[in-house]
Amino acid sequence: MNELFQLIDRLEQEHSLSCDEYEVLLDGLTPELAEYAAHKASKAQHAVYGNTVYVRGLIEISNICKNDCLYCGIRRSNHNCSRYRLSEEEILSCCSEGYELGFRTFVMQGGEDPHFDDELLCSLIGKIKKAYPDCAVTLSLGERSRESYEALFNAGADRYLLRHETADPDLYRKLHPEAMSFENRMQCLKTLKEIGYQTGCGFMVGAPYQTNRSLAADLKFVELFQPAMCGIGPFIPHEATPFSGFPPGTLQTTLFLLSLLRLTDPGLLLPATTALGTIDPSGREQGILAGANVVMPNLSPVSVRKKYELYNNKICTGEESAQCKSCLSRRMESIGYRIVTDRGDRKPFQAHRMKKKEGIINVSV
Ligand code: SAH
Question: Which residue's C-alpha comes closest to atom 12 of ligand 1?
Answer without folding.
Answer: 163
